[in-house]
Write a structure and sequence with these properties.
It comes from Amycolatopsis jiangsuensis. Belongs to the cytochrome P450 family. This is Cytochrome P450. This protein has a single domain, classed as Cytochrome p450. By secondary structure, the protein is of the alpha+beta class. A 4-stranded mixed sheet has the order 1-2-7-4, covered by helices on one side. Strands 3-9-8 form a 3-stranded antiparallel sheet. The protein has a two-stranded antiparallel sheet with strand order 5-6. Strand 1 and strand 2 form a beta hairpin. The longest helix has 32 residues. Helix content is 47%, strand content 8%.
């Protein structure tokens, strides 16, 4: 099958039978139509790429980057602007060349392995506190609300130097800005403006009284031309880190625990051998079937992908989650192997735009799992797997809640 064989492109993201299940279309596209037309929430068409080598190649190609507001790209969201991917924030953060490298290097200094190791005791202490509060309230409990959401919010807020007591505001603004179908353009514009004013206020305070946090440090940074970072870039960076630093990790903690509990032999294997935590985290990331929309790339010249040639002006939607289940790259790709190593999954993307915060996400996932195994060895789902519910309408995937008992 080729792209032209699909007369009426399907809507993407595809629906799945269950909250943790992979859509059946992934396997069909990988086998029969590895570069196929789909329709996004906006109604615009994109080229969906589902095979591991193809997704990795496109994401790693330095010629192409995320669509910017100046591109005639397919819009991910059904708002007029296309959502956060085509927002003012996306326009401010540099996407190409020396400016992009300078931005990544500046932010990347705060996510080194040394810094992450130094954070582990504090993350563990906060996880223990949240678990104690959850268990004191009694079972059943929502592990997402009690642990998976507040923990990464606390971590990223501490790193940035903003109060985690504002986490409900961050959650609302993030949901609006990551919406594909749930909010209007007016609501999106309001959330973006409110978030910007909020960060602007914190930056003003830090100019007057700098701390030992990332936002304070950025006030003295310069761009690739030696100029101080603009207020717009500082605010956009803070917004991006707050959204990415809590939304995806909070969802992944809940999904990881759910994946390990739906077949409780997995949880028991970790109890018997806690050394498997690191590989179990990587396998959870690889097997995540509810990861969201994926990463888009705007093609500024013709590109050969597999047996297809995508013309300049195409928006390529790279499904890392579909690629992570490609049997060509992973033996037993549909199965969860807690000992899988190496595990070169694409959950964090690839190339120059791979997730900057992946060391932090990995640290939080590992520490959370270690603490849960130690403090709640009897943890189990409080509902059957069929009772788990997906978050709908957002560019990132997650569970609405994770009911557990112990």
């Amino acid at each position: 099958m080729t792209r032209s064989d699909i007369e009426q492109p399907p809507r993407f993201p595809f629906e799945a039978a269950g909250a943790l299940d992979a859509p059946a279309e992934w396997a069909e596209f990988r086998e029969r139509c590895p570069v196929g037309k789909v329709v996004l929430a906006s109604g615009d068409e994109a080229a969906l790429i589902t095979r591991y080598q193809d997704v990795k190649a496109v994401l790693s190609d330095p010629r192409f980057t995320r669509p910017t507001p100046g591109d005639d790209a397919a819009r991910v969201a059904d708002t007029e602007s296309g959502g956060v991917f085509n927002s003012d924030m996306a326009a401010v953060i540099p996407q190409h060349g020396p400016a992009h490298l300078n931005w990544r290097r500046t932010i990347g200094k705060w996510f080194t392995a040394k810094r992450m190791n130094a954070l582990r005791p504090a993350i563990a202490a906060m996880a223990e506190q949240l678990i104690d509060e959850m268990t004191a309230a009694g079972a059943p409990a929502d592990l997402k609300a009690g642990l998976a959401f507040p923990l990464p919010v606390w971590v990223i807020c501490d790193l940035l130097g903003v109060p985690d007591t504002d986490r409900d505001l961050f959650a609302h603004w993030s949901d609006v800005m990551l919406s594909m179908t749930r909010y209007t353009q007016q609501e999106f514009d309001a959330a973006q403006a409110e978030f910007g004013r909020y960060l602007g206020g914190h930056l003003a305070v830090k100019r007057a009284d700098p701390g030992e946090d990332l936002l304070s440090a950025l006030l003295s940074e310069t761009d690739a031309d030696g100029e101080p970072w603009s207020d717009a870039l500082l605010a956009a960076t803070g917004i991006g880190l707050l959204i990415a630093g809590h939304e995806t990790t909070a969802n992944m903690i809940a999904k990881m625990v759910a994946m390990l509990l739906v077949d409780r032999t997995r949880w028991e294997a970790l109890l018997a051998d806690p050394a498997l935590v690191r590989t179990a985290v990587e396998e959870s990331l690889r097997l995540d079937a509810n990861a969201g929309v994926g990463m888009s790339r705007y093609l500024t010249e013709d590109l050969e992908v597999g047996d297809a040639v995508l013309p300049s002006g195409t928006t390529a939607m790279c499904s890392m989650a579909a690629a992570n289940r490609d049997e060509r790259a992973f033996g037993g790709a549909a199965e969860m192997d807690l000992r899988r190593s190496p595990n070169p999954h694409l959950a964090f993307g690839a190339g120059a735009h791979a997730c900057l915060g992946q060391p932090l996400a990995r640290t939080e996932l590992q520490v959370t799992l270690e603490v849960l195994l130690r403090k709640l060895p009897g943890l189990e789902l409080a509902v059957p797997e069929t009772g788990l519910r997906r978050v709908e309408g957002l560019a990132v995937g997650g569970l609405r809640e994770l009911p557990v008992r112990w």
